[in-house]
Structures are given as structure tokens and as C-alpha cells.
């Protein structure tokens, strides 16, 4: 029984859980600030210096509100919906390599909770199960608008998962491994995958916007169309779970994009600083988080720039636009690697 | 539409550049209790009873003082 490893993994797990929740919490603050700055206004600046305690205020508000469960709603499914959404959102963070190797007490530990050899496939599996959370929430509410919202959300997420998977298939052709650890190792220095797979990166980014139900693909939850979409009937903490699960999904999607296309924790010229191995690892992790924050900013930036897609435009784009492009990407990558025989 | 126009990418990038420019511009918000907006005395558009230079009322509805214009 390797108690040291188990202890390390448990502590690391709690740290990652805490970091995920704190980053998602401050993403809500960041979203409001970024939205405000782009709209020539100030954003929250009353709840603490520069409004930094605003997420705490929101959390307290969520706890204090009254929990309303409609009489005609299916109680078990009503509570199950947000639980599934939150659980699967948190579970995707397990396979992401947050850094290199840490040397504690003469023993090397990798900064990854579970180095599955099917890493990227596990991420897709969790995202697919997350669709259940939304569908169940919409159905259990016993409300027409919620059902419309959840049907649109489910069909949107399923359609864009295909193009996302195919973009990753082209990447796996070049990488030869599904394990996220290997994918990051191969991007050492400046060999980031975005330079080798630019079309794949654009496809994956677009599909990530659609998977997290984020504008311009946020038809399932926009107020002008569907009152609240699948979370119309929810209040207090269950609504908090749905909204929070969306921000956690945004954080994890940014982390996956940064890992798979932008080199993860690799930093160019990191070997030339001459630092101790632990310091190098921590520097790499800090650089990884900078990439993640840039992508979170990109999510918010695109949200406040683009108008929303109509449902049929969205479906057209997913099936008639992105899937052919993704297939072309796979064929082009395969042809390139066959004729030029690169490893 | 040309191919580049159809994929919307140049339009999206131009739009994002505009939003980013607004990100760095000066905000037009005033923080109310600390700062107030200056406004003129007849700001509210309320009807004001005008008086002529001798202090008599020039009521526009009853027009009783309108015979002698000065």
C-alpha cells in the first residue's frame, strides 16, 4: 500500500477542487467586469476593493434564497439535474496535466490526478454525460419553455461533440497517443500543436463555445427567447449549481484547449533559466494558468462581441459546416503525414 | 458572398478588435453618491413662470400682461 502516493493524490485532488471552484467563482466576477469594460461602464465595484468580494456576496445570496420546487415537477429528477451537471463538470478536471513533476522528499510525483491512457476520450465522455444534466433539468421542470431550452441545448451539444471529436482525431493522428500527458510532453519548447493543426484548433474552439452553451451559441438559456431555458424553474442553490457548472465547464474547456493545442505547461526557453526542478515545474504551471486565463478572457470577449445564432443557423453550422471541415482536416492531416512520413 | 465573407472569420476578428478598443477606453459612468452630474436650473423641463424686466408676471396662458411688450 503506497500510502505516500495516496496521501499526495488526495491532497492534490483537494487542491485542484479548490482551485477549480475559486477560479469559477472569480470567473463570474471577471465576466461582469469584462462585460462592463467592453460596454463602457464600470462593473461591480462596491462589494470590497474593486468589487472583489462580489462573488462572495452572490454566494451568500444564493444560499439565502428560498428553494422552490414546483408541485408538478418530478422531485427526484429536479434535484438530479443540477447534480449531474456539477459532478460531470468537476470530473473532467481529473485528467488534465497541471504541471510537470514535483520532487518531494526525494520522490517524484506528477501533477496530474489520473494519467489515463485514454485521457482525451475520458474528457469527451464526461462532456457527453453532462448533456444529461441539462436534459433532465428541462424535463423535470414540467414547463414548456424549460423543455424547449433543454431540447435545444441537448441537440446543440450532441451536434458539436461530433466535430470536436473529429478535430481531436486529426490531432491524435499526429500525436499517436490519447493520453494528455503524452500530448503535452510532445509539445516541448515551441512545438505547440496549434502551429501544426490550425484548422483543428479553430474547429475545437468553436465547438468548445457550443459545448459550454456560451454565446454566440447560448440559445438554450437566453432570456429573450425562452425566459430562462432549462433553468427557468430553478431557484437558490440548484440554480447556483447550474450557473456554476457552466463556469466550471468554461474553465475546464480552456484548460483542455490550452493543454491540447497550446502546449499545456510548457514554456519556451524554460530550460535556459537554470532553476531547480521544482521551480521549473511551478513556473510551467503558472504559465499554464496564464494561458487558461487568456482563454477564459477569449470566451468572455467573444460573448460580448457576437450576436446569438438562431437555432437553425446553429444546426446548419454544426452539421453542414463544421463536420465536413473536420473530415477534410483528418484527410489532409493523414495525407500530409503519409506522404511526408513525419513521426 | 466571397468565401472569406462566408466563413465570417474576418468580420468576427474586426468586431473583436472594436470590443477590445472599448475595453481600454475611459468609462462614462459616474459613481453616484460621490459624484453628481451638473445640471442647469431648468433641467427638469418643468414649466417656469417667466417674469419681465419690471418683475411683472408674463403668464403665457392667461396673457393678462401681454398688452405692453417691452
Query: Low-confidence spans of chain A: pLDDT under 50, at least 5 residues?
Result: none
Largest interface: A-B, 14 and 14 residues
Identify low-pLDDT runs of chain B: none
Q: Which structural class matches the secondary elements of chain A? A: mainly alpha
Percentage of residues in helical conformation of chain A: 55-70%
How many H/I helices of chain B? 2
| Spatial extent as radius of gyration of chain A | 21 Å
Number of helices of chain A: 12
The level of helicity of chain B is 25-40%
Strand/helix succession of chain B: HH
Strand content of chain B: under 5%
Q: What's the mean pLDDT score of chain B?
A: 77
Whole-number tally of structural domains of chain A: 1
**Can you count the beta strands of chain B?**
0
Radius of gyration of chain B: 28 Å
Assembly form of the protein: heterodimer
Structural class by SSE content of chain B? mainly alpha
* Span between termini of chain A: 39 Å
For the largest sheet of chain A, list the strands in their spatial order. 1-2
Beta content of chain A comes to: under 5%
Mean pLDDT of chain A comes to 88
Q: Topology of this protein?
A:
The complex is a heterodimer of chains A (about 350) and B (about 70).
Chain A: H1 3-38, H2 54-64, H3 75-91, E1 101-104, E2 107-110, H4 119-140, H5 144-175, H6 180-185, H7 193-196, H8 198-211, H9 223-226, H10 236-261, H11 277-303, H12 311-339
Antiparallel strand pairs in A: 1-2
Chain B: H1 3-6, H2 9-23
Amino acid at each position: 500500500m503506497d500510502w505516500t502516493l495516496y496521501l499526495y493524490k488526495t491532497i492534490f485532488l483537494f487542491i485542484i477542487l479548490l482551485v477549480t471552484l475559486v477560479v469559477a467563482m472569480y470567473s463570474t466576477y471577471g465576466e461582469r467586469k469584462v462585460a462592463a469594460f467592453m460596454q463602457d461602464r464600470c462593473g461591480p465595484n462596491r462589494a470590497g476593493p474593486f468589487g472583489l468580494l462580489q462573488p462572495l456576496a452572490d454566494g451568500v445570496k444564493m444560499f439565502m434564497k428560498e428553494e422552490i420546487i414546483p408541485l408538478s415537477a418530478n422531485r427526484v429528477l429536479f434535484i438530479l439535474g443540477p447534480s449531474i451537471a456539477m459532478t460531470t463538470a468537476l470530473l473532467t478536471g481529473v485528467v488534465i496535466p497541471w504541471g510537470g513533476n514535483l520532487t518531494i522528499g526525494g520522490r517524484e510525483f506528477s501533477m496530474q490526478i489520473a494519467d489515463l491512457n485514454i485521457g482525451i476520450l475520458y474528457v469527451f465522455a464526461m462532456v457527453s454525460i453532462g448533456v444529461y444534466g441539462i436534459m433532465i433539468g428541462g424535463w423535470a421542470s414540467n414547463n414548456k419553455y424549460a423543455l424547449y431550452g433543454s431540447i435545444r441545448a441537448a441537440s446543440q451539444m450532441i451536434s458539436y461533440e461530433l466535430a470536436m471529436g473529429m478535430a481531436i482525431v486529426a490531432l491524435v493522428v499526429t500525436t499517436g497517443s490519447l493520453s494528455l500527458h503524452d500530448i503535452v510532453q510532445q509539445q516541448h519548447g515551441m512545438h505547440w500543436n496549434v502551429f501544426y493543426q490550425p484548422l483543428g484548433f479553430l474547429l475545437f474552439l468553436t465547438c468548445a463555445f457550443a459545448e459550454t452553451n456560451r454565446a454566440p451559441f447560448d440559445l438554450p438559456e437566453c432570456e429573450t427567447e425562452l425566459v430562462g431555458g432549462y433553468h427557468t424553474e430553478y431557484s437558490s442553490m440548484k440554480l447556483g449549481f447550474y450557473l456554476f457548472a457552466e463556469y466550471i465547464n468554461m474553465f475546464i474547456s480552456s484548460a483542455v484547449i490550452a493543454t491540447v493545442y497550446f502546449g499545456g505547461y510548457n514554456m519556451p526557453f524554460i530550460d535556459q533559466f537554470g532553476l531547480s526542478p521544482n521551480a521549473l515545474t511551478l513556473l510551467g504551471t503558472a504559465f499554464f494558468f496564464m494561458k487558461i486565463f487568456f482563454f477564459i478572457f477569449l470566451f468572455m470577449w467573444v460573448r460580448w462581441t457576437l450576436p446569438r445564432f438562431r437555432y437553425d443557423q446553429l444546426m446548419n453550422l454544426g452539421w453542414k459546416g463544421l463536420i465536413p471541415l473536420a473530415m477534410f482536416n483528418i484527410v489532409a492531416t493523414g495525407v500530409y503525414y503519409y506522404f511526408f512520413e513525419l513521426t | 458572398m466571397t468565401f472569406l465573407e462566408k466563413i465570417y472569420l474576418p468580420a468576427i476578428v474586426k468586431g473583436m478588435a472594436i470590443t477590445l478598443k472599448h475595453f481600454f477606453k475611459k468609462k462614462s459612468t459616474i459613481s453616484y453618491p460621490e459624484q453628481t452630474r451638473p445640471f442647469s436650473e431648468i433641467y427638469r423641463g418643468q414649466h417656469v413662470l417667466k417674469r419681465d424686466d419690471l418683475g411683472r408676471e408674463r403668464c403665457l396662458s392667461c396673457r393678462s400682461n401681454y398688452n405692453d411688450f417691452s
